[in-house]
Amino acid sequence: MSNNTLEFSPSTPIPAHLVSQVQSKLAYVDESITAAHVAETGDQITLQLRAPLNKVAAASLNSKIQIVVEMMTKGSFQPKVEVLEDYRDTPVPYDRDPMDELVASGEVSEEETGVFTFGPLFSRLVDYFESRFLELAASFGAQPYRFPTLMSARMLDRVDYFRAFPHSLTFATHLRADLDVINKFAEQASYEDGGLNASSDSFSRVKAVLSPAVCYHLYFSLADRPLPAENMIVTGVGNCFRYESTNLTSLERLWNFTMREVIFIGSKDFVLEQRELAREFMRPIFEELGFAYHVESANDPFFIGEFRKQAAFQNAFQLKYEVRARLPFKDDTLAIGSYNYHQDFFGRNLNITLSDGSPIHTGCAAFGLERTVFAFLSQYGLDQNDWPEVVKEALS
Ligand code: ATP
Ligand code: ZN
Ligand code: MG
Question: Which pLDDT tens digit goes with each residue over 313-358?
Fold first, then answer.
């Protein structure tokens, strides 16, 4: 074992259903960690470190890890995973990691960790899959909206986002409007040691973050008044940003990605019914596209402090279903979309009411465009001859 590897045994073993979620949170525990692995058995954690740690530092890291494990697992119970669609056995022709070929052919190039430029083949596939998601939107007569890439920090505070997902935020700031500050920055700023070298008091306070999701913008636009109609169905696409730390690997987790959403607003029954219709509408489409996938109940990636309570709540009330595509090259699955129900959370926090004065319920179907293409290429490869007929035809 190299000096840059550290192994811990958690004080209580991590239950199987939490292994991957604990592993993903370890990326946020300490900046010395470059990769974390939790054994499937849940009794061993292996960390890769930037540099060897002395005894004191290793002990302090150990205690941070134990805190994470304890907060996420203590008193948790195995959720009942509900599988609504199961096409995991759909045969697919490819079983390698498409990333090598994508990079070699210039289809994908990484500008910064988690920030990618995509070439013509990849981009045409994005457009094509998005056109299929737009069929879903059209089936509901969804109204088109355009949303900004920046999102109001003031509004996010109203929906408690800073408690639920602080770890993945990306902040937008600018230089303070002060001649001395701007001149000093212009003279001295340079990129050094993996970051921009500028004094932090040059920057403004944060009023906006880069959008972590799309549908929030719609709810914010409707805040503090009665819903102008009995219900609403809207569609929009947007740039989304989630800082996934050392989990920003390959195309599975991007810092900057694109989401197409169909958003439902109305009564509880209305939203639940539309969410179900959306899933039923997409099923034959995913089948036609040849995806090996399944749909199962899931929870959002809440941060450590909120995780246990919120995840259990989401599971108990079936608030989230994920479309999980197989990645044959690593014998794993990856979420390419989700069907979500937020109950009256946004209605209550943003004071948006139905005609009877009760808070609106909301839900959405959300699809990650880059992930959909990545999953497709993982199953079918870059050779168009191996692709399902509809995809081949659409791109010819
Ligand atoms: P995961 O659990 O895999 O992180 P999620 O539960 O955070 O996904 P949602 O919030 O449901 O994802 O977002 C909807 C879709 O957006 C996901 O199904 C996925 O396709 C896409 N998505 C989410 N995070 C990323 C990311 N970091 N990079 C690329 N696509 C993403
Ligand atoms: Zn949404
Ligand atoms: Mg998820």
Answer: 898 889 999 999 999 999 999 999 999 999 999 999 999 999 999 9
- Can you say whether residue 316 is alpha, beta or left, with left for phi > 0 and alpha for psi between -120 and 50 degrees? alpha
Contact partners, residue 59, CB within 8 Å, separation at least 6: none
Question: Ligand 1 center to residue 223 CA distance, Å?
Answer: 26
Same domain for 187 and 233?
no
C-alpha of residue 310 to centroid of ligand 3, in Å: 13
Q: Are 49 and 26 in contact, with CB atoms under 8 Å apart?
A: no
Whether 216 and 343 share a structural domain = yes
Name the 3-class secondary structure at 314: helix
pLDDT tens-place string over residues 137-166: 999 999 999 999 999 999 999 999 999 999
pLDDT in tens, 216-229: 999 999 999 999 99
- String of DSSP letters for 46-93: EEEESS---HHHHHHHHHHHHHHHHHHHTT-----PPEEEE-TT---S
Q: How far is CA 160 from the centre of its chain?
A: 18
47, pLDDT greater than 80 = yes
Atom number, ligand 1, closest to the C-alpha of residue 244: 27
**Are residues 287 and 281 in contact, defined by beta-carbon separation less than 8 angstroms?**
no
Domains identified in the chain, total number: 3
The per-residue b/e assignment along 306-341, b for 16 or more CB within 10 angstroms, e otherwise, is bbbebbeebbeebbbbbbbbbbbeeeebbbbbbbbb
Question: Residue 239's beta-bridge partner residues?
Answer: 258
The strand pair at 256-266 and 232-241 is best described as antiparallel
Ligand nearest, relative to CA of residue 167: 1
Q: Choose the final residue of a domain: 13, 46, 73.
A: 73
368 lines ligand 1 (CB under 6 A): yes
Q: How far is the CA of 233 from the centre of ligand 3 (A)?
A: 24
